[in-house]
Amino acid sequence: MDTVFFIYIAPTIYLSREFTIARFAGELKEIGKMNKTSPRRRRRQKSDTAPAAHRSAPVTGHLRPLSADDMTRIDAASRDILEQVGLSDASPSTIEALVARGGRVTEDRRLLFPQSLVDQALCGLRRDFTLCGRNPVHDIEMTTARVHTGSGGASPMVVDLQDGSYRPATLADLYDAARLVDTLDNVKFFSRSMIAGDIETARDLDINTAYAALTGTSKHVMTSASEAAHVRAIAEMCFLLAGSAQAFYARPFLSLNINHAVPPLRFDPEACDVLLTGARLGLPVMVNTFGQMGASSPVTIAGCLAQTNAETLAGMVLAWIANPEVTAIYGARPMVTDLRSGGMAGGSGEQAILTAAATQMAQYYKLPNSTIAGATDSKIADGQAGYEKALSVTMAVQAGANLVTQAAGTQAGLMATSFEAYVIDNDMLGAILSAASPIEVNDQTLAVDVIAQTVRGEGHFLGHPETYARMKSDFVYPAHADRQAPEAWVASGTPTINSAARRTAETTLANHFPSYISPELDRDLRARFDIRLPQERMRQS
Question: What is the topology classification, in CATH, of domain 129-435?
Fold first, then answer.
């Protein structure tokens, strides 16, 4: 057989003519499977590669848009804002806690933070802790610049998987989202991604949201509470699931997203009480701020960062005062406004650089942190969604954000959640996280001896044992992105990533009904709380 065998790499390289398919048949048997099979079969062969869920989270922080002097000046401006301008609308409990530690209330009822108190909090706040999954394989190390990508969004709508229409999200949709995320290797945690519009009261919404998330996934769960009393109920649920309060504290598998500030420079009184209560109960707390550049914060990136940093530090100080051992995550997530319409521009280049700079400020204080990236403005999982998400998530990852929320599943500026997008974004996140991995440089990887042997022998590396070994460990293979040759793609029916992702979402939701809560414990929870998710909805029909 004298058919010439080509291997295409960009730029294209051709192996010499004497290397025929017959000669490579044995050596390329395993590698050839990956290229010659259909996308569906490649998904079934996923076990041939190291599962992404078991890969170490990359340590990044290479992207640094701010200089050391820039960060020092932003820090100084934030401290001046806290000490001289302060925040308004503090709740009585917030005022009491801050004044007892040296804070001061002005005549116009603004709460001021002395710089010495900020320094004490920054010195005392915990670093290098772990947010746990119910399954230890999903533990999240919150060490400097170690990156984990996940869901989020709190959207009021869902993109219907059957007809693509936008409709109000329900509790069952939220449960389905948790079940789907439970199977996606590169979505490392489940942050509540939608609001269950079929739940009438705030208490029932908070409790049922936590329940639906915790029954749907064994990954770390992030949820929210609208009142301090609801925090106690959620904590009680967690303690029951863990076996005791002490067992939960040893492995905290749920944390609270708390938006304690309403920019510019106002507290949300109820959210502050939630923050105080959560910290005192020992729940991990996400201290989040959401100023919009040009609307609720200055139109310049520097000014937006100074104000957002001040608002975030105010929440971190409050959490530390409530509990010096608090597990608190710095959550500055400034957003960009499209000044033509007043709407959010989550997919813009300005948003990407702003997010990276906010992450760099968290690293300035060496604080475990979270941010938003992936807030595409596109309404569907299309090319616009792809480039906007890839841009913002890549920059957040390269900047070294510990938690990148909203990185999967969100559409329409966080207004909708898409099951199809979850699956597509999981492929995207695998590539982004792989690109962020450090390059191993040592005698073995430099491979001088292997190069010498190969050029004097076979003249190619495809059959070398290390090539085959590293195929399994060093490469992330997408489950839905198509890598077939054009003729094979046509022969397989010209599949798109959307159609492949839709099939995966449908199959997963039809079959994956995890049992992370025992029937006995579930009966106990339903007796204690008004759980609205029907048991028959939680099992395969």
Answer: TIM Barrel (3.20.20)
**Sole residue written with tokens 């599949």:** 495
Q: Is 196 helix (H, G, I), strand (E, B) or coil?
A: coil
Q: Return the pLDDT at 54.
A: 58
Is residue 104 classed as helix, strand or coil in its secondary structure?
strand
The CA distance from 157 to 193, in Å, is: 10
Residue 469: predicted pLDDT: 87
DSSP 361-407: HHHHTT--BEEE------SSSSHHHHHHHHHHHHHHHHHT-SEEET-
Tell me the C-alpha to C-alpha distance, in Å, between residue 472 and each of 462, 477, 480: 14, 10, 18
> In this structure, which long-range contacts are made by residues 136-140, counting pairs with CB atoms below 8 Å and at least 24 apart in sequence?
136/251, 137/53, 137/54, 138/53, 138/188, 138/189, 138/218, 138/219, 138/220, 139/220, 140/57, 140/188, 140/189, 140/220, 140/402, 140/403
Question: Is-contact 184 507, C-beta < 8 A?
Answer: no
d(CA 220, CA 207): 17
Residue type, 535: Q
Report the Cα 21 to chain-centroid distance in Å.
44
Report the alpha-carbon distance of residue 250 to residue 242 in Å, rounded: 10
Q: Please tell me the distance from the alpha carbon of residue 504 to that of residue 289, in angstroms, as a whole number.
A: 35
Burial class (CB in 10 A: 0-12, 13-18, 19+), 335: buried
Helix (H), strand (E) counts: the chain: 21, 20
Q: 3-state secondary structure string, 121-166?
A: HHHHCCCCEEECCCCHHHCEEECCCECEECCCCCECEEECCCCCCE
Q: Tell the residue number behind the tokens 């029909």, with chain if given.
A: 541
For residues 117 and 318, give the distance between their C-alpha atoms in angstroms, rounded to a whole number. Answer: 10
Structure tokens at 181: 């995320």
- Spans in the chain with pLDDT lower than 70: 1-55, 541
Give alpha helix (H) positions in 18-114.
21-24, 29-36, 39-44, 68-80, 92-99
d(CA 339, CA 134): 43
Provide CB contacts within 8 A for 136, sequence distance 6+: 251
Per DSSP, the residues of 411-463 read ETTTTEEEHHHHHHHHHHHHHHHHHTSPPP-SHHHH-HHHHHHHHHTTS-STT
268, HSE (Cβ side, Cα atoms, 13 Å) = 20
Domain boundaries, the chain: 24-54+444-511, 129-435
* Type of residue numbered 351: Q
